[in-house]
Specification:
Elements lengths: L9 E5 L3 E5 L10 H7 L4 E5 L16 H14 L5 E6 L1 H12 L4 E7 L8 H17 L2 H6 L1 H4 L3 H11 L4 H12 L15 E6 L7 H10 L3 E6 L6 H4 L1 H17 L1
Parallel strand pairs: 2-3, 2-4, 4-5, 5-6, 6-7
Antiparallel strand pairs: 1-3
Helix pairs in contact: 1-11, 2-3, 4-8
């Protein structure tokens, strides 16, 4: 299959071991800033906007996880980074798992935040495709009004997300929904991941049940789970200190590995 990667916009903070942070759907790199500000003296943080979000361009293709992996791979090549710690939130976690399978030699460590290895169930797949059709006819207001309350119980963050979603491009939302709907089940290759792997889950997550994270950790060779009671699906905004603590643990594990 031929891929057409795009040059991703990215923001960089700190110095040291490179950590690439991938945001979830339909967000942008800014969700990581509260965590990075706590850790900028520990590592070099690279925060891209995935294709179609923030300041990154989009193509005319469905955002398959494999295509998004090629975007990230191109970014690593542009920055002359041989190996990185890759941490992904939600959809960014799906991309990170796909990257671990496609380019294992480029990983020094892996982090999965509010994410899962399972593919969509047939029902979930149809729901995503139905939302994609609705967005095409009704616009991104459908996402801006509907999604924030599923991501967090905090009203201040819901308002922040509501504002962010209004700037999202309609076609990018559609491309991502279709890409997530067709993604592969990553469970078969979890035991092939040889690097330290951090899993972070919010106990109040309405999108990905906590048991999914627990099941995933059981299949990982060097995985461990941090459960955050006061967080939903966006723990880096809800409890940045706890997420920063987890990333510090991952950094230590990578240094010891």
């Amino acid at each position: 299959m031929e891929f057409h990667p795009v040059e991703l916009y990215y923001r960089e903070e700190g110095a040291g071991l490179p950590i690439v942070l991938l945001h979830g759907f339909p967000l942008d790199h800014s969700i990581w800033l509260p965590v990075v500000r706590l850790l900028a003296d520990r590592a070099r943080f690279i925060m891209p906007d995935l294709r179609g979000y923030g300041k990154s361009p989009d193509g005319n293709e469905i955002h398959s996880m494999r295509l998004l992996v090629e975007d990230v791979q191109l970014l690593l090549d542009r920055l002359n980074l041989e190996r990185v710690i890759l941490i992904g939130h939600s959809m960014g976690g799906y991309v990170s798992l796909c990257f671990s399978h496609s380019y294992p030699n480029r990983l020094a460590g892996l982090g999965l935040v509010a994410s899962q290895a399972d593919a969509d169930t047939p029902e979930r797949r149809q729901a995503r495709l139905r939302t994609a059709r609705d967005v095409r006819t009704k616009g991104v207001d459908l996402v801006a009004h509907g999604i924030p309350s599923t991501l967090t119980n905090r009203e201040d963050l819901q308002e922040q997300l509501h504002e962010m979603f209004h700037s999202v491009r309609k076609q990018s939302v559609i491309n991502s929904l279709k890409g997530m709907a067709e993604r592969q089940d990553a469970n078969p290759w979890l035991d092939q991941i040889k690097v330290p792997t951090l899993v972070i889950a919010g106990e109040q997550d309405k999108i990905i049940p906590l048991r999914k994270s627990r099941e995933m950790v059981e299949l990982l060779n060097k995985g461990w789970l941090i459960e955050i009671p006061e967080a939903g699906h966006i723990p880096m905004l809800e409890q940045p200190e706890r997420v920063a603590e987890g990333i510090s643990q991952l950094l230590s594990a990578v240094h010891d590995n």
